[in-house]
Structures are given as C-alpha cells and as structure tokens.
Amino acid sequence: MKIDLTDTTAGEINKALVQGRRAIGTPAVGMVLTLVIVTDEENAYDALKAAGDASREHPSRTLVVIKRVSRTLRSRTSSRLDAEVRVGAEAGTGETAILRLYGEVADQADSVVLPLLLPDAPVVVWWPVNAPLDPAKDPLGALAQRRVTDSYTAEQPVRELSARAAAYTPGDTDLSWTRITPWRSMLAAALDQVTCEVRAVEVEGEEFNPSCELLAMWLADRLDVPVRRSLSPGPGLTGVRMDTSCGAIVLDRADGSLATLSIEGQPARAVALKRRETAELIAEELRRLDPDDTYASALRYGVERLNTAPETEPAPEPEPVAEAAKPEAAKAPAKKAAAKKAPAKKAPAKKAAAK
User: Fold this and answer.
1) For 161, left (φ over 0), alpha (ψ -120 to 50), or beta?
2) 283 FRET partner, CA 20 to 30 A, in 56, 123, 159, 355?
C-alpha cells in the first residue's frame, strides 16, 4: 500500500503510517529499530531495495531522506516536504517513508526525522554515498547509536580511510570493513590450526579498494608483523599469503566466488568466499549495535604504515664540496714530492761540473 503526501508535515506522515497499518490489518508495531537512509535521488532505489531485503531479518521502520537540489533562487527560499508512505508488501516486513526535502528544510532534516523515530528503539543512520567526514557530528548522525558509511563510494577511497580514522567515534562503521568479515574469519581459523609464528604477510587486491587496505591494517595490528600490500586486477580482494615458521599459509580467490586455502603439510581445500550484496552487508551491521573496537583499532593503525618493512639503507653519496676539494688535495702532495725530488737531481750535476 502506498500513500502519497505533498507539502506535508511529520505529524501527517505519522498519521499515514498508522492509517496504512490499519488498512492492511496489522495495527500492532513489531519493528526492532529505525533505519535512516540519507542519499540522493540517483541512489535511492538501490539503497531502498537493499534495506527492504535486510528487513526480512530485521523488521524496521525505514526513513529515506532525499535532499532535493533547488535550481532557482525562489525555490531555495521556499520550504516543502513531500512524502511517500509504504506499508505491507511494498515495504518488506516493516514500513517505509520516503522524505523529499526542498529548500531551507533540507538543512534541518533532523527536525523532520526526529518525530518519526520509533520510541524506545535503536536508530541506525546509513549513508550509501556522500557520507560526511565526521558522521557523529552530523545532525542526523547525532540521533543514532550506529552510523554506517561506505568508503568504497568515495572519490579517493584509500584517503577516505585516513579521514575516517581522524574523526572516529564509537558507533561508526564502514561497509568496506563488513565486506572482509568472511576473510577475517577464514584467516583466523587457519591460524588456529597451526602453532607457528607468523613472520610476514602479503595482501593482494585491487588498487583503490579500501577493503584490501582494512584487511592489511587488521593483520598488521593483530599480528604485529610487516604487511605488504600488492596489486592485482581484482575483483576486490584476490589473495593473502602469510609466511610462518612452519611454511606458507595462502588464501587465494581469483574469481570472486570460490577460494583455495593452502596450509603447509595439509591438502588444499576449496572454501566459499563469495562477494556479497549490499543487503547482506546491511543485515550484518544491524545484528550488532555496540561499538566495534576491532574496526577502530585496525582503522587507527593507518594506511601509511603499510609496506614499511625494514630495508638496507644505501650508502650516503659524497657531498659536492668534498668532490671539488679532491683535485686540490691531490695537487698538494704532488707539489711536495716534486719539491723534494728537485734538489736531489741538481746536487750530482754541480759536483760533476766542479770535477
């Protein structure tokens, strides 16, 4: 069921949600959280579809906030709120309100969202694109216990990780971190099977993939060993090699779906490491609403500390001044030698003349 509201208010939207539930015969509210999606018109459909699929595991009230760009000066000074309310099959197992904000009200989205939050239920804010540099200080982010971003959608994903580390607040998380959960589980399980000491690690993947960097930082932070980041055509993460005192442990995934785990002294085995859809990633993040301390520790390790294995330093080159002084220094001994040899040659000549 869909209910369209034009130039409306938060109170009218609440009434429409109640009216929709009664019309489909489910007046009781059985939702466990409020999911606020802050996006643009271009990415709203994909984000809403992912949230709808995730709602089968986490029934929730989904509020989609779309800030419309005003093209004229007159439209910038006027404020309007349009809404589309969806309940029943149109909204998965929860209910959805799509909010389109025009004019000055777009800068006060928190005042529109606040009356629509479920009472006594946690709030999660998700930015599929264009996330703020400091989500916790964003007006909408301040309403939430959990703030989800995706550095993969940034123009410079790897540099975005440094900004996330500088502004980290407990409750922040990133879907680039969620994407490597199966990799972290598989590598931890592989290390549990051996009693060897890890000496060095190499992480291979696409060049501008923040998940590769996060996995490398996690390994460097937890194992306290040098971690080298190498490049591959992808897709995404393609392999991890750990050099241990008992031999190499290699987890290789070349096709993005099936990986091969090789441990020295054991037969190679195939493991499922499929690249997951956004709905699965969001569903995983909604399972836990407490701060992720492991993510915070790996993020703060820093991308710049990767590929810093100690190397032999080259010998310093001689300074130009010293090189210029070399000819003068070489001439001085030659002059002294010539001065000493000259009298020795003249003495016999004088004696011969006297005779």
Assistant:
1) alpha
2) 159
Read off the pLDDT of residues 139-167 as tens digits, 9 standing for 90 and up: 999 999 999 999 999 888 888 899 999 99
Residue from 132, 95, 77, 139 nearest 113 by CA:
139
pLDDT digits 0-9 by tens, 317-336:
444 444 434 444 334 444 44
77 or 215, greater pLDDT: 215
Lookup: tokens for 162? 């440094």
State both tokens at 58. Answer: 């986490």
Average pLDDT, the chain: 83
Which residues, other chains included, contact 132 with Cβ-Cβ below 8 Å and sequence gap of 6+?
138, 141
Find residue 2's DSSP bridge partners. Answer: 86
Backbone angles phi, psi at 331, to 5 degrees: -70, -35
- Among 36-40, 193-197, 323-327, which stretch is predicted with the lowest mean pLDDT? 323-327
pLDDT digits (tens, 9 = 90+) for 16-26: 988 888 887 77
DSSP-derived pairing of the beta strands 2-5 and 33-39: unpaired
User: What are the distances in angstroms from CA 232 to CA 205, 206, 235, 254, 317?
Assistant: 5, 5, 8, 10, 36
Q: How far is residue 117's CA from residue 34's CA, in Å, rounded to a whole number? A: 6
